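Record pair follows.
FIRST:
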Amino acid sequence: MAAFRSGLLVLTAPLPALAPRLAPLLSSAAGLVNHTLYVHLQPGLTLAGPAQPHPGPVPATFEVLDVLSLLYAGADRHRGLDVRVLLSNVQAKSALAPAPVGSVQNLAHPPEVVLTDFQARDGSQYNPVKQQLERYATSCYSCCPQLSSVLLHPDHGTGELPAEPLDVPLPATIRPASPVARSPKQPVPGYQRGALGGTFDRLHNAHKVLLSVACVLAQERLVVGVADKDLLKSKVLPELLQPYADRVEHLSEFLVDVKPSLTFDIVPLVDPYGPAGSDALLEFLVVSEETYRGGMAVNRFRLEHVTPGLEELVLYQIQLLKDQSHKENEEDKVSSSSFRQRMLGTLLRPPNKRPELPPCLYVLGLTGISASGKSSVARRLRSLGAYVIDSDQLGHRAYAPGGSAYQPVVEAFGTDILHKDGVINRKVLGSRVFGNKKQLKVLTDIVWPVITKLALEEMDRAVAQGKTVCVLDAAVLLEAGWQDMVHEVWTVVIPETEAVRRIMERDGLSEAAAHSRLQSQMSGQQLVGQSHVVLSTLWAPHITQQQVERAWDLLQKRLPETLRARD
C-alpha cells in the first residue's frame, strides 16, 4: 500500500491493554504514514454497532500521562514520523467547566488515512467497521475528502498483538514529589494557568511529553518560554540551533494541534526565571529531571525577590526519555544536542553550480574561526584523497619577493615593513592593519585577487593529477568572496571558550588578546549561515575522524555522475 503523508490513529483498547500493543501499532502505522501521525485516545470505543460512535471525555489520570509518555517513547523509534497525541478529549479534574467534546477540530495536516487498533469480529478489514471508523474520524477532525481507513489488526501488524494487559506497571511519567505512592487511576488536577520553558530546538518527542503534560494540566492558559540570546551560548553546537522564529513556529503548530482550547503565550526566555519568576497568575511549572533544580530556584525567586512575595508554583517533574540509539559522544536521553551532533558532516543546503570551474573537479571551501581545527580537518581530507590548497601558503607566495603582491604591498605600506633581507615582515604588516578597517581593505584589495589567481592555477594542477575533489583551505573564505569559486562551503566550529583556550595555549596570547582576535573575524554562527556542511573538532580526535569520513562518504554519493565514474 502506498504511504500516506498524514494519518490519524484511533486507539480504542483500555489503557492497561493498550500499553503492550503500542510498539507494534506504531510500527504498523509508520509503515503507512510517512510525515504526521495524529493519535486519538478513546478507550472503550466500539465501531461494531449500528449506532454512530461519538467522542467522549477521557478522564486525565496518571495512567493517561504514562501512556502519553509511552507513546512518545515508542514514536522515537520512528524519527521520520511526527507523532502528535491529541488532547481535546482528555480532561483533568477541575472546578472549571470542562471543554466541550464533539465539535470538529481543524488540524495542521488533515489526515489522509484513519487507522485503528479496533478488531473486527472476524479479524478482517470488515467494511462496516471501516465505514464507522471514517464517520467517527470526520466527526472529530478535519480530514481529507478522500479519506482511507485501515484496521491495523491483524493484516498490518508486525506480529501478534498482546490481547491482555501485561502484569507490569507502566513507567511513571511524573516523578512523585514525595515517597507517597500514587495510583494509576488517580485523577490529575487541573489548573487555570501554568508554564514551562525550554530551547525547543527541532521539536522532538521528549519535548512533546513535557508540552503534553502541561497541556493536560492547564485549563485556560499556558505560558511557554523559548530560550533565546544569552541562554543559548552554553548549548552544544549553538551554531546549528534553529532560529528563534522557526522554533516558535513549530512549537505553536504542535500546541494548537494537540489542544486548541488553550490560550498559548509563547515568549522569549532570556534569563533563568522568565515569566515563571514574576507572573502572579501562574499556578504550576512543568520541569524535567535535569531542570528540577531550576524549578526550585524559580520558587525561591518568587518568594524572596518579588514584592509582594508570590506563592510557590506546583512543580511537575517529568522523567527523561532515554535515547536507545545514542552514540559515545551523545547524551543517553532524547536530546536536541544529540540531533545537532548528528547533523555534522551532512549536507545542510543544495550545492552551488559552478559551470566556470573545471568540469572534472568538485571544489570544497574549508573555513572556520581561529583555532577551530580547520587544518586538522584539511589533513584528514587529504588522506582520503582530496587535493588541498592552503590559502596561507598561497599568501606567502604572493608576499614573497617577486610575488605578484610584493611590490604593490611595499608601495602601499612602506619599506619599514621589510626585514633586512627584503622579505615582508608579516607581523609588522599585521600590526599595521589590525583594528584599522581602512588599512586592512587596502591590503586585502591587493592580496586577495592574487590568491584567487593562484588558487585557480592550483585547481588546474589538481585536474592534471587526476583528482576529482579539491579543498580550498581558507580562514577568510567568505570575507574574500572565495565561496563564489567552490561548490560547497565546509565550516569547522568549536565554542568560543574552547577557541580562546586553544589560542592562548598555541600562540601564547593573553585571554584578552585571544578574544580580540576572535572578535576581528566572522563568528561561527555567521560562517554556518553560509555553509553546506558543518564539522566540529570539540571531541576526541577519533570522533573528528568519524565525522570527516562520514562527510566524505556522503560527498561521494552526491558527486556528479561524471566525477564518480572517474573515481
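SECOND:
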Amino acid sequence: MGKKSKNEKKVKGAEKTAAKMEKKVSKRSKREEEDLEAMIAEFQNLDAKKTTVVETTCPPPSARLSASISAHPEKDELILFGGEFFNGRKTYLYNDLFFYNIKKNNWVKSEIPNPPPPRCAHQAVVVPQGGGQLWVFGGEFASPNGEQFYHYKDLWVLHLASHTWENIKAPGGPSGRSGHRMVLSKKQLLVFGGFHESNRDFIYYNDVYAFSLDTFSWSRLSPSGTAPLPRSACLMTSTPDGVGVIVYGGYSKVRVKKDVEKGTIHSDMFLLKREGKDGQEKWLWSRLSPSGSKPPPRSGFSSAMGPAGRVLLFGGVCDEEEEETLEGDFYNDLYLYDTVKNRWFPGVLRGNKSEKKKRRRGKKGGAEGEGAEKKGEEEGEEEEGASQRPTEVIKEIIAEDGTVMTIKELIPGAQQEEEEEEGEEDDEDAWAPLVEPCARSSSMATVRQGKMFLFGGMFEVGDRQFTLNDFYSLDLNKMDQWEVLVEMDPKTQEWLDESESEEDEEEEEEEEEEEGVEEGAAAKGAEGEKESEEESEDEEGEDEEDEEEHPAVQEAEPLVDYQSRTEQYWTGLSRVNLGPDAKDKKVAKIALAMAKVFFEDQ
C-alpha cells in the first residue's frame, strides 16, 4: 500500500477526534437533556389534549429566527413551522404552524393534534407524494435561560392533504443535532452535518444519512473522496439532474484553550454525487471550484432553490473576533449560484422607472441596452451602468429605548434625477426608492412560482439582538424590487437587559417590604416621593437646558449639511456617552443618529 496523503491523514485524524468528542459530549449532556426532556414532555401533554384541527385566520407570525418556511408542492401556499425568539432575558421556542396564501395575502394558523415539540434550527422538506408532505427532522430546544440545550433526532411528517402529524420511528438515523441540512434527492432525504452542544462541550458533524421515502428506513452513507470538514448552517441543494447534492460554506468552531473557542466561517464548495444503479449505488465527494463572484465569507445566510437551477443566497453575518469581544457585520445582499454553469454572481435589482422610460421614449441604442441588461443578469451587472445605479443611503431608526437600528435604502441615480427634471410630470411618481430587507441573519427563505419569499431573522446592535417578523417577496423574473408584505415596526422590538431583570427583582422585593410598613413610615415615604418628583422636575429642566445648548439648525438647512457642520460636536457627545473604549465606527454611527433625532425635533 502507498503512503497516505496529508489530506487523508487530516481527515482520518478529524474523524477520530470527532468520535472521541461525541462520546464526551454525550456523557456530559445526558443529564442536561434529561432535565429538558421533562419540560418537552409537558409541552407534548398539553398538545395531546387537542383532538381536532383548528384553523383560524390570523395576523402574521410573531418575530422569530431559525424557523422553517417551505413552499407547498401543489398549492400557492407557504408553510412556516417553529422557530426561536430571545428578548435578552428569556428564550422562547415555538411549534406553531402557519399557512400563507400567496394570492390572498393572508395567514392561517393551523392547530393540528400531536405536533412535534417546540424547536428551532431544524430542517423541513416538502415532497409531492401522498397529496403533499412536509418532512421535519432534528432541531434544538433550549431552556428559558438559554443555558441548557436538547438536540432532537426525531423525524416527523405532516400530511398536507389530511392535516395530520405523524412521528416516524425508524432506527439507525442521525444522532441528535441542529443546524444540519436536509434535501430531497430523488426518493431519498439526505441529511448532512450539523452540531450538538451541551453546557460545556460541542461537536460538529460532516456525516451523511439517507432516509428512503419508499421503505421508511435510514442508512448511513460512506462516500469516498475528501469530505467537507465538519460544519453546520451550510448551503445544501440538489443538483438539477437529481444525482447529487452541492454543499457550500457553513460554520464551525473549535476549542483552542480551556475557555477559549474560535469560530471558522467556511467558503469552500463540494459535490456529493451518486454513481451506479439503484441498490448498488456509491457516493463520491469532490471539491468544486466555481467561477464568477462568490459571496464574501459569512454564516447565518438564508438559501433557496430558484428557477433554472439557480440557488439563491441572502444575507448572513461575518463575525469579527477581537480578544474578548465579538462583533458582526450583517448583510442584506443577494447572490445566485448557477448549478449548471458552476458559477456565482451577485443579484442586482434593476428598479422600475428607468425601464419604463426606455420603453416609452425608444431611445437610440435601446436594443443594445436590452442586450446588455440580459448579459448583466447573467454576469451580475458588475460594471455596466455603475454611474446610473441607485445610491445606497443609510437610514437610522431609534427604538423607544434609544437603541439605533440601521436600515439600508436606495435612491435614484444621477441620470434618473436628470430625466425627472426634463418635465415628465406624468411619470413623477413612477420612481420610488428601492426598498430592501434590512441586513440580517437566520431568516427563512423559499421560492414559489418564480418569487422568492423572505421572513424574519435577526440582527444585532451592540449587545442587543433584534428579532424580526417582516416579510418580503422578490419576483426573480423581473428582479426589479422587493415587495414589502409585512413591514418591520421598530417600536415592537423588545429587549430586556439582564441588569434590568435584577433591578425588577429588587423593585419587587422593595414593594413587598413597603406593604408591611407602618403608617408613619408610609407618610415619610410619601414625602420622599414628593422630593423625588421635585428632583425629577429639576432634572427635566436641566435636560431642556442641555437641549438648548446643542448646535442650532439653520433656516432651510438640509439634514446632511447639518450633520456635516456639527459632526465634531455630536461625535464628542457620543464619545462621552459611550465611553473611551467604544469603537470609532460605533461612536460615529451614534453621533449621526443623535444629530438626526435633534434635527427632526426642531
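COMMENT: Confidence is low (pLDDT under 50) at residues 354-391, 408-431, 512-548.
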